[in-house]
Amino acid sequence: xxxxxxxxYEKASCWAARYIADKINNHKTDKPFVLGLPTGSSxxxxxxxxxxxxxxxxxxxxxxxxxxxxxxxGLAASHPQSYRYFMMENLFNHIDIEHKHVHLxxxxxxxxxxxxxxxxxxxxxxxxxDLFLGxxxxxxxxxxxxxxxxxxxxxxxxxxxxESVASNARFFDNDLEKVPKTALTVGVGTIMDANEVVxxxxxxxxxxxxxxxxxxxxxxxxxxxxxxxxxxxxxVCDDEATEExxxxxxxxxxxxxxxxxxxxxxxx
Length: 268
Ligand code: GLP
Description:
Radius of gyration: 17 Å
Strand content: 15-25%
Bound molecules: 2-amino-2-deoxy-6-O-phosphono-alpha-D-glucopyranose
Number of helices: 9
Order of helices and strands: EHEHEEHEHEEHEHEHEHH
Number of strands: 10
Structural class: alpha/beta
Oligomer: single chain
Distance between the termini: 25 Å
Largest sheet: 7 strands, parallel
Helix content: 25-40%
């Protein structure tokens, strides 16, 4: 698993956005480019950069299909804290993607198991995910694959941990009661099937989990750590997120990725 370290969140976001834009722009096959997407505060900088590149005429989503990672159970698409609403507001309403090409799990479904099964089938029907972009929960989880999730899990219902509920309360007037307690989420196995995985991590509050995910072994209590087994996985982070890593680890990745870290720096 690669680690690209940038000096701050802005640069990490720009780097990741340019990297993904290159993949979309250079995608030559007849098959559309299938992009997996997260919500949360971590990808916001990337989404801003996508919108900017699109407005400047440097990035089109006409040949892109998207699949979001997760959705709260019980929130309608019109709820401002639903992940569908978040994606429309922060990305889809500002780019040229056809809305029929946007896929999100339906948190209001009456049959969650069927919804999850069909989601996996839709991904398969599009030929699989080319690149899954993700964030990391402060305990090292990916999507809503909370600690203890099966590392070969598929799309399903998950109960959120107290930690996830608490950290998401900021979006619900800091009222724990208002935060949904269950969600639909792609599994670790679903993400592992993507051709490539890119994770954006920022800030000191993620440093402890990042250390575990990068320097320690694969562990079901930090589901992102399973990406160590992915043939093409990369974490893009800022300096603050590396504060718990060993000095030698940071030096190793900064040296070995020197040329790559400098890629795109003209556009920051
Ligand atoms: C939730 C989401 C994850 C996200 C995580 C971190 O758990 N399901 O997809 O990565 O929050 O969110 P943030 O980026 O706001 O720190």
